[in-house]
What does this fold into?
Amino acid sequence: MGIVTFAFSFLGVFIGKRLTSAIGKKAEITGGLILIAIGCKIFIEHVFC
It folds into this structure.
């Protein structure tokens, strides 16, 4: 399981470095907005439910 986790993590970093040069800041901003939206959803679910 550790080998598979390492392989996928390594692959993610490798692909991320390649895509960063192609896509740039737009991907970072989009990813950040998605994480903020997920955090807000979780917060609202815990406060109001």
